[in-house]
Amino acid sequence: MLVTGVVQGVGFRPFVYALARELGLSGEVGNTPAGVVAEVEGSDAAVAAFARRVLSDAPPLAVVSTVTEEYVSPVGGTEFVILDSTGGPGRTLVAPDVATCADCLAEFADPSDRRYRHPFISCTNCGPRFTIITGLPYDRPATTMAGFPLCPDCAREYADPDDRRFHAQPIACPACGPRLQLVQPGLETEYDEDALAVAHGLLVNGGILAVKGLGGFHLVCDAGDQAVVTTLRKRKDRGDKPFAVMAADLDAARRIAWIDAAEEELLTGIQHPIVLLRRKAGAAVAEAVAPGNPDLGVMLPYTPIHQLLFDQPGPCVLVMTSGNLSGEPIVTDDDEALSRLVGLADAWLGHDRPIHVPCDDSVVRIVDKIELPVRRSRGYAPFPIDLPVPVRPALAVGGDLKNTFCLGDGQYAWLSAHVGDMDDLATLEAFERAEQHLEELTGVRPEVLVTDKHPSYRSRQWAQLNAAGRPVIGVQHHHAHVASVMAEHRHQGDVIGFAFDGTGYGDDGAVWGGEVLLADYDGFERVAHLKYVPLPGGDAGVRNPCRMALSHLWAAGLAWDPRLPSVRACAKAELQLLWAQLERDIACAPTSSMGRLFDAVSSLAGVCHRAGYEAQAAIELEGLASEDRGAYEFAITGEEIDPAPVLAGVVRDVLAGVEPGVVSARFHRALAEVMVTLAERVRAGRGLSTVALSGGVFVNRVLLSATTAALAAAGFTVLRHRRVPATDAGLALGQLAVAARVRS
Ligand SMILES: [Zn+2]
Ligand SMILES: [Zn+2]
Ligand SMILES: [Zn+2]
What we know:
Blueprint: E1 2-6, H1 12-22, E2 26-32, E3 35-41, H2 44-56, E4 63-68, E5 80-82, H3 102-108, H4 152-159, E6 180-183, E7 190-191, H5 192-204, E8 209-212, E9 217-222, H6 226-236, E10 244-247, H7 250-256, E11 257-258, H8 261-268, E12 274-279, E13 295-299, H9 304-310, E14 317-322, H10 334-340, E15 347-351, E16 363-367, E17 370-375, E18 384-396, E19 406-415, H11 425-442, E20 448-452, H12 458-465, E21 472-475, H13 477-488, E22 495-505, E23 511-519, E24 524-530, E25 533-536, H14 539-543, H15 545-556, H16 565-568, H17 572-584, E26 588-591, H18 594-604, H19 616-624, E27 635-637, E28 640-642, H20 644-655, H21 660-686, E29 690-694, H22 701-713, E30 717-720, H23 731-739
Parallel strand pairs: 2-5, 8-15, 10-13, 12-16, 18-20, 20-21, 22-29, 24-28, 29-30
Antiparallel strand pairs: 1-3, 1-4, 2-3, 6-7, 6-15, 8-9, 9-14, 10-14, 11-12, 12-13, 16-17, 18-19, 22-23, 23-24, 25-26, 27-28
Helix pairs in contact: 13-23, 15-18, 15-20, 18-19, 19-21, 20-21, 21-22
The chain binds zinc ion (3 copies).
Protein name: Carbamoyltransferase
Active site: 13, 31
Domain YrdC-like: 193-379
């Protein structure tokens, strides 16, 4: 039997060994470049049970792609043995980092266990992987645990096929493992339990602690303490962007947020991502944690060090935000943390197990009981995505916002962990390091580079600079979005693609973002788009939703009524300047951006006029949406989706004193309804009935849920993101599928 997939370094051989022995089978199991190969011998019933349970009972980290069975002649063996790995070229799929498992937690809490309260407890099923692997083959010397030789007790466990730490590379114990240390400026460094005691005291007393996690440092403080959270916000230069929190356990999480069964499963699963949850009224979380946001990003402790932060009386909910200044990559190195986080943290809780590559926390939202990844990073990367079409060895560099990149070869694509916004040198360097590391782990040697078509994207410039004679292929932004959701669903054939986002470079040079594309992997036809309006001043227009509102009013021929919140939000000089800018067409790029339409409506409804972080106006508008069943109405003229009647309806309602939540609901419904109308037109004309939804706008739960329901009710099959983000963080997968596909 040959088993392929993520089956190496995840405890697959010991699992096969235990299963065979339980069923009374003899034979052997080994790692080969092709995958895990097992030969078993015994009764027909036992062999059949073995074949079934290899799939159904596989270890939690394993992802089985294929199982091939073949009959071989019995050899009359009596034993079952684990063979040494046979080397040679091949593809090992490296597992992601995994939250501490229940077995380890039980030992961790047992005073008689030799790993009682050990900050680095791990086993075959849990602990760091991706972030500590420096090369292949995956063996202790090729990890950042290389500097910690196993003590005799650990070595015995490592060598024993019956032990749950058999061949687990990151294992350690208090005798041989890394040590915790606490550094405070001007004071002696503390170690182990002393380090913890000082760290804990600091949290209780309103301090800010830098804590080394799996993929980087976090900045940590008491989430219930408005003063310290406000201080952290100022120090990080964070604007109003929400902080994530870590709750001590599920009960503590339930006290601050509503958690359904799907969300509970996600919070407690092997990945332990940040889950965006509905905040409970009166939750004991400072307003400064997520100002103006109805959601809270919540996660549970996923390393032993996190467990230790909560095991003394003290805060049950901690702010846990990535250790960096806003926009910069997360800090991973202890020395670097001391210098780069100076002025941000009061003390540093670190250790001497190096982090080889950074990996930010993943963020997931549940919509209609289905996962919607917002950031796919720790716990997911570098799990491969199996492709619907084989690809050449290629690197797709993604986009410039929320960058991730993607390596592909044959049937697999490896989407990187979150890299960040490519607007500073540090992020560009982080991109290069992450790219080299992923090449190292996957063995992919790209023969072609794929980029966005935006001429000034740094990701594209990087590819052109580093092409070394290899072809560089550009893929239109929204085509890549649609291809991304198609690829993760392994979809073949044409779709009606809705690509709604803030910004993407259009083939006509305009800023696209409200696009309806008839698409497959080969190409696309732009069948409809939001009508162009001026984007006054580029980035300035993005940062100031009130200006976008006024631009939309201007384009729709609607008056700037001084009673409107957007007009009131602007000083007289700003209004005059904007009017002149629009009338004379100065620095006004045409845009069909759906994100900007959300900004405009958010401002008109009086919700948000100045955006301190990306999509703030849209997020706050969504958060307010009521249960109102009314809807505004878009006009469709040829290929243009005209929002003028929607804006007229919004203005009418706002001037009549209608609540912002009702305006929000009616706007969301209008969008869902016009999408059904457009999809029906394409279906009537082209006979297509599969709809693909992608782009950052579809992180919006209200819109995604309403749209999916309305399209399904109209008889469409709906493809929406469930494995990679709908935002530009999923772009690279689509780029790869479009440009590196092997044409048959
Ligand atoms: Zn474990
Ligand atoms: Zn040990
Ligand atoms: Zn986009």
